[in-house]
Amino acid sequence: MERFIGIILLAVFFTACNDNEEEPEPTGSSAVTFYVPNGFPAPVYTFQNNTVTPAGFELGRKLFYDPLLSNDSTISCGSCHQQGVAFAHADHRVSHGINGLLGTRNAPALFNIAWIPLFMHDGGINHLEVQPLGPIANPVEMDEDISDVLMKLKRSSYYPGQFAKAFGDDSITTQRMMRAMAQFMGTMISANSKYDQYRAGKATLSAAETSGLNLFRTHCESCHREPLLTDMNFRNNGLDSVFVKDPGRERITLQPQDSGKFKVPSLRNIALTKPYMHDGRFEYLSQVLDHYSSGIKQSSTLDPILSAGNIPLSAQDKSDIIAFLQTLTDYTFISDKRFSENP
Questions:
Q1: pTM of the predicted structure, to 2 decimals
Q2: How does DSSP classify residue 274?
Q3: Ranges of H-type helices in 187-255
C-alpha cells in the first residue's frame, strides 16, 4: 500500500546491534527470530526496544491480515500485500482500497524492511513502527482513524487477551499495535534465492544467468546494489519529462531538485512483483529493459547515471538479464507458513 504524506515524520535512529553472522532458518510457526543474513549490512531497525516474541509476532500477523483496521472492515494490509507475490499486489497497477477506490501508486513488495530507512515510494515515512499509520489513514486505502481502530480492538473479544500475551497486560495502545506489526513485518527476511545460494557457493548459474549477472553488474548495480539489490536512494530514472501528476520525492522535501525522483526498489523477487515502476506502468520485465535501452526521457532532474541517454542492450542481453533476475526469486520466503494468513 502507498500513501502520499506531506510531512516527514521525526527521525528515530537505531544503532545496529546484530553482527553479520547468519542464523539457522527457523522451521516452526513458533520459531520466530530476527537475524542478519550472511553478507547483509547492519539493519536500520534492530528490535532493540521491541524484542521479537512468539506472542508479539502472532499479534502482528493477526493485525496485518485483519480488515477491521479499515473503515468498513473490508481491506487489510494483506489485501494489497500478498505472500505469493512477495507481499506485493498481484497484477494490480495501483493499490485498491475501500469502496473500490484506487490509489495512485503501485503497492510495493514487503521483505527485508528492517533495512529500509525511508518508507513509501517518496520516503514520506521514516520509521517501521510508524509505517502502518499511512495506509490506515489514507482515504483511498483503509480510510480509518487510528483512535477508531484502537476502539474496535478494545471492544473485540479476541484482541485484549492477545495484547496481554504479547505485552504483559491487556492495555491496547498505538505503540503496542505498531510494535506488534513491526515484529511481524520486520522478520519477513528474504535471503534464500538461487542468487543467494550462488553467493554462498551452494549453487551454480547457467550460462545465460551468468551472462545476465555480469550485464547486471555493468549496467544496473550502480542503483541496485548487492546484496539488498537497492541503494535505498531516490532517483529519476527517465520515465517522464514532466512530473505534474506525481512529483515523487519533491512532495515530501518541497525541493525542485527532487521532482520525479522515487525510491529505488529492491530487485529481489522481481519476477513475482509485476507490474513495475511506482505507477505500475510496465507489465513485463522486458518492457522495463526496453525503457532503459530506448525509452529514457530527459529532464532537469534525470539521474546523472542516465544522463548519457539510453543503455545499449541487445535482445540477447535483455534475455540474459531477465534470466538472472529470475534467480532472485525466494521460493522459501513466499511459501513460509509463518507469514501466511492461516499458518
A1: 0.90
A2: -
A3: 194-199, 207-219, 250-253
